[in-house]
Design a protein that fits this description.
Length: 168
């Protein structure tokens, strides 16, 4: 085997069941995160106008790790705080009104300092229904759902569910 053949063998992705490892990894990312991480990262970079290195710093992971996730050399984000920061940033950017300017440097600095969690309830953490029932009677929750329903259907549904707790 020549040096060129060895180099090509290293660069060519291993084939598994007729698909490259990278294609399989992208498919797994799609399952885990709703889309391949390369797509999400490129979207975030474009919205912020920043390099991969700057985005990696804001998320709290190494540039090399972000590059491996984008290229699907690696499937999973190992640090839950990094995943939570990425989801927080993605949500913030998606909610921006069209054409609104943002200060990427400031946003990424705030993001880096954030200590978000994935929203999983911990011991003693009430769910939304329990929290709502603690401040209002079921009839009040149902009435609020009726008022909010036409303009805010998702909130109304949450109120309706809280008004009728599950029977066990």
């Amino acid at each position: 085997m020549t040096a060129t053949d060895r180099a090509m063998a290293i660069e060519a992705p291993e084939q598994v069941e007729g698909r490259s490892v990278f294609a399989r990894n992208r498919a797994r990312q799609q399952e885990l995160y709703g889309e391949p991480l390369g797509d999400r990262i490129r979207r975030l970079q474009g919205a912020l106008g920043v390099s991969q290195a700057r985005l990696a710093e804001g998320l709290g992971l190494s540039t090399a790790m972000l590059s491996q996730l984008v290229s699907a050399r690696r499937v999973k984000i190992g640090d839950p705080a990094v995943l939570a920061r990425m989801l927080l940033l993605d949500r913030h950017i998606r909610r921006l009104p069209a054409g609104e300017e943002l200060d990427a440097r400031e946003l990424l600095a705030q993001l880096r300092q954030a200590r978000p969690h994935l929203g999983l309830p911990g011991p003693g953490t009430p769910d939304a229904g329990e929290a709502l029932r603690a401040v209002a009677a079921p009839a009040q929750l149902a009435a609020a759902a009726s008022v909010l329903g036409p303009r805010f259907p998702a909130i109304a549904e949450l109120l309706r569910r809280a008004a009728t707790p599950e029977r066990r």
